[in-house]
Design goal:
301 residues, mainly alpha
Length: 301
Amino acid sequence: MPHDSGDTPRGLGFALCAYVLWGFLPLYMKALSHIGPAEVVAHRIIWSMPLAGLLLILMRRTRDLRAALTNPRMLAMGRVTAALITVNWGIYVWAITSDRALDAALGYYINPLFSVALGALILREKLSGAQLAAVALAACAVAVLTTSAGAVPWAALGLTVTWGFYALAKKQLPIGPNQGFLLEVLILLLPALAYVTWLGAAGQGQFLTGNSPTNWLLLGCGAVTAIPMILYANGAKGLRLSTIAILQYIAPTMIFLVAVFVFDEPFGQARMIAFPMIWAALVVYSTSMLRQMRGASAARP
């Protein structure tokens, strides 16, 4: 948990590195546009395992993982989080490689507001007037995009919903974030290996087909997946919740800029209306949250 007493330089450095790496991730995934999203996700799982496993060994935290693997309830919860993160990764890769990076940015912008709504609906957390207004603004922005396109922005909503429920389920997993990430990867490893093997046997796989750049890009999927998640997990321990809440806008902002100025995705009239509405909602939400936290801090003896 982040320290309420203040932010540490170490925590801030780790978290900033994680969010910046997530912001640049679309550039890496775009280079894999010639590969199916499911195969990319499988390689993200496979090559994350050695890095996550090595870190846990170096930290001497393998005992918690062994306990989780032998605990039926914890293993079931791990399966839920593993399934949610797999779907989230799949939607993300598809969005980037299908010229829908703006939808990915939108999804991660909406996510904090969805988490607030989720807390109210499932955990019965009371929302302030400002939080209700922020959620309503976000809903209106989605309505604008839906009306303009004649279709629901499924990619954006899919990323929002899967990550929101993933974060909620992750809170219920009673082990550390590094152990939890490796637990998820281990749960997904056999299906990922089976899928990649099947693709290779069917002559449809892209790994080890003689294309050296593609092979290296797929191998690198482990690093671009595991390193930011590990950096974030360790950085969050040294940051206040309010700091994390503000930093989380770095990645979608970078994705937005990459989509518009690097990928040259069209930023039509509907998005010109919807995105400022989302940004306004986030300002309202963040301001309300910071006031609440300052009030709670002042009320402490």
